[in-house]
Amino acid sequence: MLGPLYRYINIVGNMNEINAKKAYYIKLGTSGEWAPHCIDNSTINLGYYEIAHETVLTGNEKLISNECVSKSDEARTRDARQILKFYDRDPEILWVTFYKGYLYWCNAHPDVEYLGRNKNDHRYGSRIRKTINGWCNTDRNGHVLEMTKLSDELKKLFYFQGTICEIKSNEFDYLIRKINDDPIGANVATQSKQNEIISANIVCCSFEKGRVYNRRLEIHGVYGGQRQGGISTPAKVPAIFLFTGESGEQYGYHDGPDENGVFLYTGEGQSGDMRFVSGNRAIRDHALDGKTLFLFQALKKKGLYRFLGEYACSSYELRSTYDVHKTQRQVIVFHLVPVDEMDTIELAIEEKSKYEAMSLEEARTRAYASAQAQEGKPGKIGKRTYRSRSEDVRQYVLKRAVGACESCEKPAPFITINGLPYLEPHHVQRLSDNGLDHPMNVGAICPTCHREIHYGHHGAKKNETLKEKIRQLEQHKPKRPIA
Description:
Layout: H1 9-12, E1 22-26, H2 35-41, E2 43-46, H3 53-57, H4 61-67, H5 73-86, E3 93-99, E4 102-108, E5 113-114, E6 127-136, H6 152-155, E7 164-166, H7 169-179, H8 183-203, E8 212-214, H9 215-223, E9 231-232, E10 239-244, E11 256-257, E12 263-266, H10 278-284, E13 292-298, E14 304-322, E15 328-338, H11 349-357, H12 360-370, E16 374-375, H13 379-401, E17 424-427, E18 442-445, H14 447-455, H15 459-473
Parallel strand pairs: 1-3, 10-13, 14-16
Antiparallel strand pairs: 1-7, 2-6, 3-4, 4-6, 5-6, 8-14, 9-10, 11-12, 12-15, 13-14, 14-15, 17-18
Helix pairs in contact: 4-5, 7-8, 8-15, 12-13, 14-15
């Protein structure tokens, strides 16, 4: 099997200008698992084994939907329309897919070859169309079409939940310019890359809780990071990917949530005592480093993982156990708490007085110390510790703002019943605004600026400006805790 890099570059360089009336994105098999087969065999393959070829040839959407196995009428109609797109004979349609971090495109012969309904006989779909000159992952001048260099909107196709969709007009125009190596398209790509960097500072990574992802294609293929092992630290996004499963039991540990919802996650290292290096250090110091923890659980089918959610490291403990060779050793067990379940605590009167009495420098020192996980206990105690550490950061940031929004610099919109200016903590590195973070990554802003950053057209740019303001405010921060 040929790898994706520079595939067909020998026939692509300096080709004629590419023209098309429209473009369809197609996901080749579940999570794109048919892509290597289709690319190597120069075909476009489609499943829908239950739909008869003769039924589709009628062009009757209702008849086709009646044969679909989806449960709802809406889903059956959607499936019928996708199948009809596959049978679209227009020779000026451009077909697009993603594989191993690259965009592939092709034109197709008009005829559909029906293979049959038996999945055992036809494991790569029930029908195919042959491509014209094969799939290509370069532009007309031979430049490789990397996903990281495409517009954000075009990359969103990778997460399309269906099988086939038409690419919208704006992105269609961008796609054609990109494939033709149009200088205008190149400028758009440069701007898109800048927007991508800004956007990544807010959203970091886009995962849906409970959804199943192909680790190689949909996680590392998009965001990078080590493809092996339980802890992956991609360089291009502020994130740490944690993968858990049953394989760790042979090395003397078992991951999973305790009765209080704290996820016990064992660090990396298969033999000898575990140390705070590499991935283990990354988890412990994720708040200090401005990184978000994304937790995935392995399924029985190899390569597939369910996204459990965004977590934060509350604390850790050292345990004695035995490795695969029955040798006693010390392992690190991290206490991870789900960020979306960690609401802000209501402080007791004495706690409020304690924070109010602190100087800014005292509050800052306390906040920086709280940003790093310490050895502690899991369960309810661990959750209380986590909330307390989060509150240290929150209270410092509010004190740092001195009653004015750190984004627009206007006074807080009103005074709370406690007599304090109302401002909202905002995490500049991630989507969720709950839980622990580093003071360098949290701003105190008014509700209007907060909503604009999350939902406004210029929100990403506004977030980047806030991030720079916070950086300047924290230039004289205390020294980083020593490991």
